[in-house]
Amino acid sequence: MQDRNDTPVLELVTERLIDAPVTAVWRAYTHHLSEWFCPVPWRAEVVAMDLRAGGRSAVTMYGPEGEVMPNEGVYLEVVPERRIVFTDAFTHGWTPAGPFMVGTFEFEPEGDRTHYRGTARHWTAEAKDRHEAMGFAEGWGKVAEQWEAVAKRIAGQATA
């Protein structure tokens, strides 16, 4: 795929119709991220979530074999219940870092469900290929499945 300037679009995308309303999907992000952020048996710990443009985003993932993967970045755009844009190109205080991607989570209400689109846009074809080889489709797909389960639980609590 290429954009209007004939520049290759270096993105990977996952989409899903989540069986929960957008308010529950948003709450799952803002209050329950550690429950779904990485595929089990990995686990996530939220270090910082300053959910505003320029705010710090820091989540550390822990693997079953003792792996530790810090994910440090900043939010570029936050539109509650609609869109979150984040990057690892900067860390807190706008300190440049080795950029890997700009990520976007988009949410569109569809009745009592939510159309979710997750996009990872990369600086280079090599970074995109590396992310794809790391298991982007499977990993982000599993994360969306786990996110949906948390959002459905939240939605069920709201109606109970």
Description:
- The protein has 3 helices and 9 strands.
- The protein has helices at residues 22-32, 125-133, 136-159, and strands at 11-18, 43-49, 56-62, 68-79, 83-87, 90-91, 95-96, 101-110, 113-122.
- Helix 1 (22-32) crosses helix 3.
- It starts with 10 loop residues before the first strand and ends with a helix.
- The model has no long low-confidence stretch (mean pLDDT 91).
Separation of termini? 46 Å
Q: State the low-pLDDT regions, or none.
A: none
Major β-sheet annotation: 7 strands, antiparallel
Number of strands: 9
Order of helices and strands: EHEEEEEEEEHH
The percentage of residues in β strands lies in: 35-45%
* DSSP summary: helix tally: 3
Based on secondary structure, the structural category is alpha+beta
Helix share, percent: 25-40%
Please outline the helices and strands.
Layout: E1 11-18, H1 22-32, E2 43-49, E3 56-62, E4 68-79, E5 83-87, E6 90-91, E7 95-96, E8 101-110, E9 113-122, H2 125-133, H3 136-159
Antiparallel strand pairs: 1-9, 2-3, 3-4, 4-5, 5-8, 6-7, 8-9
Helix pairs in contact: 1-3
